[in-house]
């Protein structure tokens, strides 16, 4: 039994989907299925009842899950305990934050030449857990999170992009309204995977007489931009860094759609000069 197998096991338990768990863990679906099968073989039990439509945990899984989480938490605690006591910061994020993060890291290192600042790529839930467990000093997230022992500090506000196929009826317009967009299908991932975007849409349409017309959810192994190409009558909402060539971006009349980007840190952390400098650099970026 390996710790990575427990990581994949927890992901499948929480996602109830091998494909979504694979995306979350940045590996292929076949690889995660293989590792879960190895774990089942090592333990001598079936952990999931699989079908083409669902993944159902067994009784053995219900007993194993809290122990697996405890093991992974201990791993993070061990890594935190043996880290060098010198000037070192671990920043957890995903690649969408890379440009701003690396610019801020460069500025912080210039101010503290002896500092070591790591940029660690982790999915959302693992970022939060890494900060809570002490494995990382701070994490960048969109939106917010409420968890005892953690503090959320807003860094900047990010505009969202309205995107559609270049063949969309509204493509090429100077600007569009939400009321006009509401006549066409809105493509988003399932709300369980993108709560933030769904909340932004609900808030934007709250004061309008119309409501968005949702198309089918974007599957976890598909991209929003590819779905737009296949559905030229549809539209979606992207983070600004997700826009790609071949997709039209529509200017929204009135108030733009925005979301906060925040740093998550432990409430009891000692704010070293390096951490203070890095947070200030992220604010100004």
UniProtKB/TrEMBL annotation:
PROSITE patterns: HTH_LYSR. Pfam families: HTH_1, LysR_substrate. The keyword Transcription applies. GO terms for cellular component: protein-DNA complex. GO terms for molecular function: DNA binding; DNA-binding transcription factor activity. It comes from the Bacteria. InterPro entries: LysR_HTH_N, LysR_subst-bd, WH-like_DNA-bd_sf, WH_DNA-bd_sf. Residues 1-58 form the HTH lysR-type domain. Keywords: Activator, DNA-binding, Transcription, Transcription regulation. The keyword Flavoprotein does not apply. Belongs to the LysR transcriptional regulatory family. This is HTH-type transcriptional regulator BenM. It comes from Nocardia cerradoensis.
């Amino acid at each position: 039994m390996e710790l990575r197998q427990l990581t994949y096991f927890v992901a499948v338990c929480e996602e109830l989907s091998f494909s979504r768990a694979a995306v979350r863990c940045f590996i292929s679906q076949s690889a995660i299925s293989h590792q879960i099968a190895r774990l089942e073989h090592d333990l001598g039990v079936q952990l999931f009842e699989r079908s083409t439509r669902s993944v159902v945990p067994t009784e053995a899984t219900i007993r194993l899950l809290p122990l697996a989480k405890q093991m992974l938490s201990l791993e993070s605690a061990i890594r935190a305990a043996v880290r060098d006591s010198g000037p070192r910061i671990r920043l957890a994020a995903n690649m969408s934050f890379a440009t701003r993060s690396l610019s801020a890291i460069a500025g912080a290192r210039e101010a503290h030449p002896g500092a070591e600042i790591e940029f660690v790529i982790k999915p959302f839930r693992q970022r939060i857990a890494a900060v809570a467990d002490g494995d990382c000093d701070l994490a960048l997230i969109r939106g917010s999170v409420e968890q005892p022992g953690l503090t959320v500090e807003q860094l900047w506000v990010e505009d969202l992009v309205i995107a559609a196929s270049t063949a969309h009826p509204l493509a090429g317009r100077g600007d569009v309204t939400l009321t006009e967009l509401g006549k066409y299908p809105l493509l988003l991932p399932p709300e369980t995977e993108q709560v933030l975007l769904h909340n932004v849409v609900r808030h934007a349409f709250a004061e309008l007489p119309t409501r968005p017309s949702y198309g089918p959810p974007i599957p976890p192994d598909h991209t929003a931009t590819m779905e737009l190409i296949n559905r030229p009558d549809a539209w979606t909402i992207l983070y600004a860094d997700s826009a790609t060539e071949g997709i039209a971006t529509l200017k929204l009349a009135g108030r733009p759609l925005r979301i906060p980007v925040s740093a998550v840190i432990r409430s009891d952390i000692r704010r070293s000069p390096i951490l203070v400098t890095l947070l200030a650099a992220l604010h100004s970026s």
